[in-house]
Each structure stands twice: as C-alpha cells, then as structure tokens.
Fold each of these.
Amino acid sequence: MSDQTPKSPIQQKVVDYFSYISLYEKELYLSPQPQQHPPSITTPQAKSKPKQPMTISQNPYPEYSPHNDLVTMHSAIGGCIRCALGSSRNKFVFGVGSKEAKVVFVGEAPGAEEDKQGFPFVGRAGKLLDHLLNEIGWSREEVYICNILKCRPPNNRDPVPDEIEQCEPYLHEQLRILNPQFLVALGRVAAQTLLRTNAPLRELRGRVHSYQDKPFWVIYHPAALLRNQNLMPDTVKDLLTLKKMVETGQADAGIST
Ligand code: SF4
C-alpha cells in the first residue's frame, strides 16, 4: 500500500532512508530470538509472590534510594536481581545520553541487540531513531534514551506486571536526577505501561499526557516504522511538534486539533 499524501522535505528524506535499508528483512533485532534461559523466566507463581513490607532500615535494595548522579546510580543497580530477568540478562541496559537532556525517550525494554551491547536502541530500530532525531536537528548525544525495564524479557515479550513494579522505580529515580523538560514514550507498550491504559497508540499520540509531573508525549516505536512505512508521516509530524514544544517551553505548542 503506498502513501499518496504529499510529503514535506523532511518526510521525503525519511522515506528515502527506507530505500536503502531492507524494510521487511527478518533481522536479528526484530525477529523473535531463541530463548537462552528457559528456566529463569518470570512465572505466574513468581508474579503472585506476596510483597514484603519494607522499611528503610530493612531495605535489602538500597539502589532505590536517591543517588547523586546517574553514574553512581548505574554502578549501584547494575547487579539488580529484583525480578527474574536479572538472572537471564546478558547485559544490564541502564540508559544513554546527556545528563543535561531536556527530553528523555523511554522504550519498554531492551531487545536482543541491546542485551548484547548494554545500550538502548542500538539495533535497526535504534539507527532509525537516530536518523529521525538527526532529521529534526537533534542527536542521540543531546537527549537521553532508556527503557522501563533494564533487562531484556525473553523473546522480546512485553513486560509483565511484576517486572514493571520492580523496575519502574529506577526510571523514576533516573527522571528525578535528569529532571527533563519532556518525556517521550517510544511505542504502544511503553505508553500504555506508563499511563496505565489500554488505549491504542493512535489515540494516545498527538496529545500531551503527564507522567511523574512531566509533560509526556507519545510516538510510534521505530520498530513499528520499520514494519509499516505508512506510520512515518505521523511520526515526523509528532517529532516536529515535540521539537516546537521543547523550543518554546509550551506543552501544547504546535498541536493542531
Ligand atoms: S528488569 Fe529491572 S527489576 Fe528486573 S532485574 Fe532487571 S533491573 Fe532489576
């Protein structure tokens, strides 16, 4: 199915980008991966494990405590085994970017390539994200990119409630340290998880939500763009709107109703 809508120069450049990458190639990053640690997956029994009330003095996980900076935090939590993913991960994927970032992009969890390298969004989808940022005049180095979960779920499945409950406080702490101007969910799962909603992404994008008292914007996941090029014009539009909101400091700048 081809998109007949006239494209802006930026949209056309992005579409051209697809002409030299293979859109539907089954690549390692996007394909289901062989399960490497079958016995250590979160089980229904683990999910129903009774929660232990904690006090600060009894807290065996001081990594939730406030940290002075991201480096200290990373080294404090890098060995986390609060959920079952801690024993199945290859690399802990903390996050990358500028500590001065005005915008923090949040995906749901590391994929195969991220688990291999220890950095978020480094596969084909990550390269497309870099390309899109460059097209609006930004770079990976000046924003911050992380995930809700710091460890890869097996076979790239969606995060389960126990993993989110255990790991989301780390995201809160990262955001407290970074104190960005805007948060951006990369894709449906991240958006639905953080907003506690089942609404489809097409209803969530294009309006400003709130997360941790920050304006919260939602865009399509770059992997979805690799699968469906027709989502590209809306994504470019959403990124340009985001840029305008960041530049003006107004959370509703550039939103057309
Ligand atoms: S996913 Fe989060 S809570 Fe689970 S082990 Fe990894 S860092 Fe810890």
Amino acid sequence: MDLPVIDLDIFLNNPQNSPEVQAECRRAAQALITYGALVLHDSRVSEQDNSTFLDLLEDYFAQPEEELKKDERPELSYQIGVTLENTEKPKCAVDEPCLDVIQRLDPAERPLDIAGHAPDPKCRFFWRMVEQPPYETEFLGLNAPNVTPEAPGIKERWTPVMDQWGSSMKNAVSNLAEMAALGLGLPAETFKDAGRYGPHLLAPTASDLSKYGKRDTILAGFHTDLNFLTIHGRSRYPGLHIWARNTGKRIAVKIPPGNYLLVQAGKQLEHLTGGLIKAGYHEVVVNQATLDTIEKRKAAFPDRPLVRISSTFFWHLSSDFDLAPIPELADEARRLRAEQFNLGKDEGREVEYPPMKVGQQVQSELKHIALMAS
Ligand SMILES: [Fe+2]
C-alpha cells in the first residue's frame, strides 16, 4: 500500500483560496485522518543536504562511547544532546491502551513483540531549533541550550550541517501544518502559530548495525510520538514500519528519492483534534530489506561505519500553549468514530483529552518512556 503524496509546491506557488490549493489541503487533512501519515513533496528540499547530514551523523555515532558520553544531559531528561542506546523504553511495553491496539490488529499485521520491557538499542541526538518566546516560559527544562560535540573533525561541521538540514525539514513541516489546518476548515495559521515557540527538535537516531544487524531485531519498538508532527528524510536503510489508523495495515515505508519527506501525526495533533487525527504507530526493525541494504553498503562503502541513521525532526506546539480539543473537530471525530463502528471497525475505548498545557503533556509522556524520573 502506498501513502498519499502531498505536494507542498502547489500550496507555496498558488493563492490560498485557489481551487488547487483548497483541494490539495483537503487531501493532506484526509491523509492524516485515514493514515496518520503522508509523503510530502517539497522542491526546496535538497537530497544532497540529507546526504551530508547522514555522513556527519554516521561519523558522530561511530565515535567511542566515552566521547559520546560527554554530550549526555540526564539532568535535563535527555531532552538535549545525546541519548545512548538502551536508555529509552518503547512506551507500548508499559502502556495498556497501546497493548490493546496491538491486540486488535490482525495477527499478520502486528509489530514485533515488545513484551519484556527492554529499552531500545538506539542512540539519539537532540538538537533544538527554536525561536525564543518573547515571554517567560513555565517550562525552562524543556527549553535548554544546545550541546555541540567537541571532537575535531566533527565540531566544525556540526552546527552548519544540523541547521541546514534541520531548517529544510522545519520549513516543510510547518508549511504542512498550514495545509492541514486549511484542509480541516480552520484558518491556515492555527497550528503554525500554536507551534511558533515550540521546542522543535532535530532528532536523528542511530543504530549500530554491526551489533544489532540480525533479522527481526527491534531498533525502536512500536510507539507513537508525543509531539505534534514528525517529519523524516530518507534513511539509507529500510526498516521503518507504520500503521495506517483506519486500515489496520502495516506499511513498510518507502520514501522516493529526491525531494520527498515522510510526515507522521503525533499525540499533540491527536489531542488538539479530539482524536479526529490519531497519532500514528510505528516501529523500526531489521527486516529483509534492511539486510539486503547492509550487504550492498558493505560492498560499495567498505570504509564507512555501518550505522543506520534516521533523519527525524519533531515539530512541537509551544510549551505554554493550552492544549484542548477544538470543538468542531472533536464533533467530527465522534461522528467518524460512530461511522467506523457501524462499518465493524471498533477503535476500542474512547480516549479522554483533558485540557492541559503542552509542557505538562510532554512531561507526562517522558515519564512513560523512562527518560524523566517520576
Ligand atoms: Fe517515533
């Protein structure tokens, strides 16, 4: 099954009230409602920038562990700098509603078994890409300054490469947030403004395939993201599976080469739409396609580290934003839920979306995944 491809160029190059833009925005909203995900085409994005970024991150994560440890900030809940492997737990392994989601999937469509609560064997770097708010934030810990690695050969390349690729993805995803708002019948700036001062993160993950390269190894267990929208550049290794909300099917993600990105809905978008758009479940595993790529890269680039980098950007709402379902969208969510139920698709227990600050929602999610002490 292929995900819908949404063209950001149409939105950027035509008036907002033109029929082409209106139609493309409706397709974007519908893709998020049906699949929780879409493929985004944006001519401004450069494949070369992604490649330069992947090279830098492969080099960074190939460093010895003592070097990487210098960039850890456990006192800030790892929300900046590096997180080493086997720290973060897949939320689903400890979360009941999530196990219920797995139960209701057809056995052939289920993720690899995450029981046993083992943390993920993946490392990650958080690089904040924020606009400082003109007000005092209640959530200082979630808005800490960036860590720059010290090692010669990496230090000089770091900031320009991270900022270049990070800005490409940030621009693409914040424009898509405008498209989604328009497509849902809201003013274009609704989500973009709510996320203007969000603690957005360029958040590449790294998996050492020389250590964790066996078939069916879970690199990141079945979970949803806690932010608003997540955007990914193309990884050099396949292995990302996503679940389409209204189809129950597991989809092996293939992002076409060129100016294409993958976007997935997160928990903040689910909350704000009262469940009309659901956060998309996903996992990263070593499958046959991953193994085939490992062999190909070993032969073509014998001197390069065998590290799977996922080029991920988490777009957040502002920490001080009041998160509560938009009434018209919550009504539509209830209507859709009833319609699905009548079609024989039981979505399980109805989820409550109590009003709260975005910063509180983030802190409560971090406790679940063992990054923040409760
Ligand atoms: Fe994720």
